[in-house]
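explain this chain.
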Amino acid sequence: MQPPKTTVRPIQRFASAVSKCSVESAAYGKCILADYNSVHKDMCVKEFMRLKDCYLLAAKKA
């Protein structure tokens, strides 16, 4: 009888990626909070794209 294979659930990969992008997350959060009463599309697009790229790179390495 073989031992069960360990599987990594998608949420575990996401959590691991998020933990590696704290600087980018903080920058995006600060941008949104700077004017949270009038958030609009593409308000913090530069910060969001950096955060997205960090997530994708971290997830790919996991």
